[in-house]
Amino acid sequence: MWFASDTGGTFTDLVVEDEGKWSSYKAPTVAADPVRGVMDALQLAADDRGLSLDQLLGKGEVFIHATTHAINAVLTGNTARTALLTTAGHPDVLLLREGGRPDPFDFLTPFPDPYIPRRLVFEVDERIDADAAVFRALDEESFALTAAKLRDAEVEAVAVCLLWSVINPVHELRVGELLDKYLPGVPYTLSHRLNPAPREFRRASAAAIDASLKPMMTHYLGSLTNRLMDAGFGGRVLVVTSQGGVMDAAEVALAPIHVVNSGPSMAPVAGRAYVGLESDTPADVVIADTGGTTFDVSVVRDGRIPLTRELWIGTPIVGHLTGFPSVDVRSVGAGGGSLAAVDAGGVLHVGPQSAGAYPGPACYGRGGTKPTLTDAAVLLGYLDADYFLGGTMSLDVPAANAAMTILADELGMSVAQTAASVVELATETMTQAILDITVKQGIDPANAVLVGGGGAAGMNIVFIARRLGCKTVVIPETGATLSAAGALISNLTTDYRRTGYMALSQFSSERANVLIEGLETQCQHFADGPGAGALSVTYAYTAEARYADQAWEIEVELPTRRFNGPDDVAAFVNAFHREHERLYAFSDHGSDIEIVNWRVGVSCRLREPQPERLEMKAARDRPAAPRNIILPNGEAHEALVYDWSLLPEGMVLNGPAVVESPFTTVIIDKARFQRSAAGSLIIELEE
Amino acid sequence: MTEQQLSGARLAVLRSRIDGIARKMSNAVLRAGRSGVLNRAKDLSCAIVTPGCDLLSAADSLPIHVLSGPDLMARVMHDFHPVLRAGDAFLHNSPYHGCSHAADHTILVPVIDETGVHRFTVMVKAHQADIGDSAPTTYFAGARDVYEEGALIFPAVKIQEDYVTNEDIVRMCRARIRVPDQWHGDFLAMVGAARTGEKELLSLGRELGWDVLEAFSRQWLDYGQRRVETAIAALPAGEASGQSTHDPMPGTPAEGVTIKASVKIDPEARRILVDLRDNIDVLPCGLNVSEACARTAALIGVFNSLGADIPKNAGSLSRVEVLIRENSVAGGGQHPVSFSVATTNIADRIVAAVQIAMGVLCPSAGIAEVGSVNPPHKGVISGNDPITGHPFINQLFLGSTGGPGSAHGDAWLTYSHAGNGGLCFVDSIEMAELHHPIRVLSRQLLIDTEGAGRFCGAPSLEVELGPKGGDVEIAYISDGVINPAQGTQHGGPGGRADQAKREASGQITALPPIGRLLLHPGEAVVSTGAGGGGFGDPHQRDPRLVARDVRDRRISTERAAVVYGVALDDFLQIDAARTAQFRAKGPR
């Protein structure tokens, strides 16, 4: 038996694999003790099988955990007291960042505090040059004094980021040895080891975040493992990484930055697998995950899940940039709880402010009086007030109506028109978020498959698809627990990277091959170690490169594993032009190409990559009556209400319709839809 | 036919779609551009203008590039080319015809639908690394006139017809612009982005109907006007003036250039009047401010105090009138006056003068002066790469602080300069060293240089850098050595700019505030950018913030005591009794 859990802000999701069948569960997240939420969800699974918790866990082979523990710690500042060591003369690297401002006229947003305050930044007398030469040798005598200051400051972790350590790590390595000597037992992170890429701010930021998480994540993962063991589990504990794979819990504790975006990275893994079940023709995929406060978008391009170094914790520019390659997931403040309001000039806004879980939307009846997207959905007939979340909660329609009426009066529109407008504007905001990531990843959303995940996706995923010109929407049967489903089919992965700057005009195949071979050997060690016993092992070879003098690199797959002669170099050049063309709509064959970074990744398949079928429960105990729904364009329809679990597979139906499961409700306009053989709801939008 | 009335909800959706197109254009230039000034520093803007030449959207743009300028440039395009056809594109950088300064190459594309009707004009503006000046800089302060400046001037010149580039013009540029491949890469990126905007707008028109987009344009501008009128109506009536002095330089009066602005707020008429007429005549140097920049600088000074959520479009901008005197340094110059440095130095002083006047009239929205530019670490660097022998030229963006304290809080630290509002990116040291044969020895904030106040201005940033392997030349023009950024409402001034040369012997030699500095390996320039002014009485600053800044080595214990009236003990904890004593004496 395998378990995968995903701890979200409101719910902890659990998907259980049991003899080729999946089942899913949701338990409330306990903010003060996230492991409690996991245990509660496991208890639901045990009850479902008539087992005790220790009987259930006793059958467990693997437990996979996606956690928001690390990201929450960073957001709340609840991390270790961490020092930063920088090259002398550069103490303000974390303060100065990379510039930019959310709005040039906004004097209300304060400048962000550095991740580590200056009082805990210490300069190291040394300097390496861009060409790897030692310009100033490391002054070990003065370092001894610095170490004493670190002790006096009672630091609990240390991040080290010296200039050009990625080209010549000798000083960072020596500083590591000296830290072992002077501050034994204090965890530290060396920037070139964690995140070997030029741009000192990104490296410093990654090292700082990583080091600051080490003490608490070691403790948290230890406690999770122990509590699982105490409850009867004897298998392997894996943790979901921001890179879209899983790692052993003990490895994560050594480099916890890997798990800052633990849950959202799994949505594209699941999305790719579910779309793959529907068609043999590879398609680009856009995965939209709608929660209560945020809308997360990720993509699959040419079968690959692209990574970005621009993952922000919190709001871009004012949050913290991890600078660490992570699955590209963009978030906007739009979700079921997004508040709708009219400004002084009479224009409507939806989000980014949210009613949150408490008081939540007005219809939750917990005292919220401001209208939200969920209230609009109730008033438009999208949600059944008497049967919300499979009947576990009922909704207060008069409260939703009262809240929306105030807005309607301000806009001079009817309540229904207003609610429809709130859905339309939220749809537009979500659409812009998708356009933002797809334009940056070179994907045409009109030719992509749109996957809807998260409990609230069904409210408007079809409308988003219309706006994007998408022809196919897929809502997996595990859609409401998409990340946990992705975790269950993800691979044990790791990446090794090195900076190796070379212009192709002065390319040395030999030097490149040595670099690649070194990275490959590291990958092989991983495959032989943690990856031992895998069903299969695959390697990925990429380079981060750019045209001469461009500022930003793009990641390009190497066509060959080694450069054996001019043909291989030419193949790479072509691959680079193609990728550039795809991302930016042009290529420049006259320009030199500079490779900055090299990467070899290894992926160890732990189980078959296809999702198993979900044991889906009925949404209700008796059939629901047709419902009147109003579409965002104002059309009113009587829609039949289908129970997802009872839809015959392969039967093509026509909207308008509502499809319900215990975890979600999907609104379909005039589109055709069916439950596929793989269990997903497939909605075809072509007229 | 009567125009259909769009609801507040519909306006919001269409706004999002139009802004989305402007953002998509800006993203396209940013990612595909070649020069560091463009793709590392993001010194670029994209705007959408109506056929009537009204600014509709400039999401994600630098303020100094767009508040005024797109309107003027579009009008000139119409005047010079009365018949516009699909496939046309125009290259425009003429400050005599509405551009900010010659370094801001701009592509204008009229968006013409299938029936030949002109629907919108899209604009992509990007600061170039080089534009063919007679010296290797795009900020040529010493230029007596445009002839000495030497920039190639393109007053809305047709560069594409039927979507085909006029390669004659490209060859002319390649023959004059240093590192022509770099320019050409940026040019292609800009044209590509403008064409993206054109395509998106055409498809939006087809999808929604042009009548809807026309109604939107009108009503969106009305909305902007309504928003700004509401904001102005809530301001106190009155008239005040402010001034700010640019340091003396060759070509300026010996006492420098004092910019005066008077601001009149008329809440009843819902109107603000900015008068820039009381300023000196144009100067025989490159510091003159173009009309577009003078108007924009005045608008920035006003809108900084009005709140970020008011859209910047022709509707909102129309309620602020800017008066300019012909032949004045502040926007009144004509050809052949040089506007080489029009976007930064004196323009920033215009922003300051207006901002200070606004602060006098409405202290609760007051903002101090932004630190001035451009110190050597933001200068234009050129030379030959010692390894490849290839020539290079680019503007350095090694960071600037300069943010002003305001009624709302401490400074946005990396404000860059007044016309920029903090949008520019900052070079990574490793990337700067990879692209140029230099070594950045240090980059750090200087202690005790913040504009003291209840809310502080940003401290000065000091950068030391020198060549590596071969000579480099740095052209710079650093204001703020004599005249620091002013504080407001009893706030203190920001730290001054400074520059010096560290000789190979280690000896420090002072440098003039303007120069073309040739550095040999072993030498270095020590360059200090100006800090920002403070807001409010430093004695009213929260003592906990003062203590924090002392612990973070931003200010000294002496300054905490003398300037802020905060006493700290040996453990840098607040000594409440002595602090009360210091502060009882009242403001400094």
Automatic annotation (TrEMBL), chain A:
Occurrences of domain Hydantoinase/oxoprolinase N-terminal (ranges): 6-182
Broad class of enzyme this protein falls into: hydrolase
The Hydantoinase A/oxoprolinase domain, residue ranges: 203-495
GO (cellular component) term, any one: cytosol
MF (Gene Ontology): 5-oxoprolinase (ATP-hydrolyzing) activity; N-methylhydantoinase (ATP-hydrolyzing) activity
Protein's GO biological process: glutathione metabolic process
Domain Acetophenone carboxylase-like C-terminal: 536-670
EC number in record: 3.5.2.14
Keywords: Hydrolase
Entries under InterPro entries matching the protein: ACX-like_C, Hydant_A_N, Hydantoinase_A, Oxoprolinase-like
Protein name as annotated: N-methylhydantoinase A
Source organism of the structure: Sphingobium boeckii
From TrEMBL, chain B:
Enzyme class of the recorded protein, top EC level: hydrolase
Annotated signal sequence range: none
Gene Ontology CC annotations of this record: cytosol
Any Gene Ontology biological process: glutathione metabolic process
Known EC number: 3.5.2.14
Family annotation (Pfam families): Hydantoinase_B
InterPro entries: Hydantoinase_B, Oxoprolinase-like
GO molecular function ontology, one term from the record: N-methylhydantoinase (ATP-hydrolyzing) activity
Coiled-coil region: none
Entry keyword set: Hydrolase
All copies of domain Hydantoinase B/oxoprolinase, residue ranges: 10-538
PANTHER family assigned: 5-OXOPROLINASE RELATED (PTHR11365), HYPOTHETICAL 5-OXOPROLINASE (EUROFUNG)-RELATED (PTHR11365:SF23)
Protein name according to UniProt: N-methylhydantoinase B
Lineage: Bacteria, Pseudomonadati, Pseudomonadota, Alphaproteobacteria, Sphingomonadales
